[in-house]
Amino acid sequence: MSVHDIRPKVSETEKITINLGLVDLGQIDLLVQEGFYSNRTDLIRTAIRNQLTTHADVVRQTISRRSLVLGLQHYSRADLEAVQRAGQTLQIQVLGLASIGSDVSPELALATIESLVVLGALHASPAVKSALAGRIR
């Protein structure tokens, strides 16, 4: 493996925190003990996926209507410099993960990103996130 083969991996999951009532939590633990699920997380992921499947048509229609990019959208410094040279700005709309390169300066981000809508997660340096705070919806 060469040095060029070592790249940071983009996490495919994002940690969230939820509050549950004690009775609900107890029922989850019971189903785990009875072997229906391997752990609490397994049950919660399954429940979420079932709800997303139930509403899949609405999600597809909304993605299309709102012109959202589905999945991973990465913007490198070279990408944003090309946008800047063209005298354009971006209106980024992503359902999933929007990623802005770690070498992108706050000034370049401000010059090229007009607005940013992310339904999911945004990975960018703290300085870029701070600079774009007023443009993130």
TrEMBL record:
SUPFAM superfamilies: Ribbon-helix-helix. InterPro entries: Arc_rbn_hlx_hlx, RHH_8, Ribbon_hlx_hlx. Pfam families: RHH_8. One of its GO terms (biological process) is regulation of DNA-templated transcription. This is Arc/MetJ-type ribon-helix-helix transcriptional regulator. It comes from the Bacteria.
